Amino acid sequence: MLTYTGDTTYDLVLSIALAFALFVAVAAWFVPSPYGRFASPRLGVALDPRLGWFLMELPATLVFLYFFLRGPHRGELVPLVFLGMWLLHYGNRGFYFPLSMRVPRGQRSTFGLLVVGTGVLVTAIHGYLHADFITRLGPHYGPEWLKDPRFLAGFVVYYISFILTLHSDSILRNLRSREEVASGERVYRIPRGGLFRWVTNPSYLTELTGWAGFALCTWSLAGVFIFAISAANLVPRAFATHAWYKQKFPDYPPERRALVPFIL
Ligand code: NDP
């Protein structure tokens, strides 16, 4: 077990979480998460993706708030800044994103229960690891932390990434008209504009740079965990999605890369 904070429970959960991220990093190359274009009826019960996303992301908000509010440093400036960042992030991912998804009528059971179950576990652990560290165990969150280059650089990277993620998510959402959604047709189009000029999966790229920024900002292994498990999930999915587009659309822009402009 990793010795990091000296709190046995925290260090144990962190060790298990990091080992799990390593497991996902291998497994995700073999089985793409069964939702969206990779939904599979063979993997059993599935939910409406809006409900699936909502349930999967909810523990990130609830568990975070629970541990945040128990911590002795909950009223201090730096923890409150992190609380604000967290609530904005999960206000988008946990509430706005699922509520605004365009899910074709009649095709609403595509979000595998397996994804929801694993997601609930991961977002709960993620909420606990961050909140307990921020308001109880983190030794470096005095007001001077706001002037530390790690905080400042991470904050800027996080917010540039967040805005770009919102933009890419919005381009994808608008590829399907409301009429198509009402007709039950599951239309996929080639996304264009923004970072899609260079990569097939800009929202995955900026999700990863965003969590890297957040990890820098908090300077914590909780941050390393969420970056690692997101990368374990999203890197293989980015390649699978890129291959899917190239197969589905013969006119798919050949210069577009899967995840990193000009490189990968
Ligand atoms: P997708 O791009 O697969 O889907 C997002 C939405 O856009 C879905 O409603 C999807 O419909 C629709 N869509 C996607 N492509 C097209 C297209 N070509 N034409 C029409 N509609 C399209 O993204 P994910 O659902 O995988 O991820 C959503 C967000 O969550 C991203 O910002 C991602 O970074 C983040 N995320 C973070 C993870 C983490 O571990 N931190 C893990 C997974 C996602 P449909 O569902 O019908 O395919």
Automatic annotation (TrEMBL):
This is 3-oxo-5-alpha-steroid 4-dehydrogenase. Residues 115-264 form the 3-oxo-5-alpha-steroid 4-dehydrogenase C-terminal domain. It comes from Polyangium spumosum. It is found in: Membrane. It comes from the Bacteria. It holds the Pfam family Steroid_dh. GO terms for biological process: steroid metabolic process. Keywords: Membrane, Transmembrane, Transmembrane helix. GO terms for cellular component: membrane. It is a multi-pass membrane protein. InterPro entries: 3-oxo-5-alpha-steroid_4-DH, 3-oxo-5_a-steroid_4-DH_C, SRD5A/TECR. The chain crosses the membrane at residues 12-31, 51-69, 111-129, 150-168, 211-235. The keyword Mitochondrion does not apply. GO terms for molecular function: 3-oxo-5-alpha-steroid 4-dehydrogenase activity. Signal peptide: none annotated.
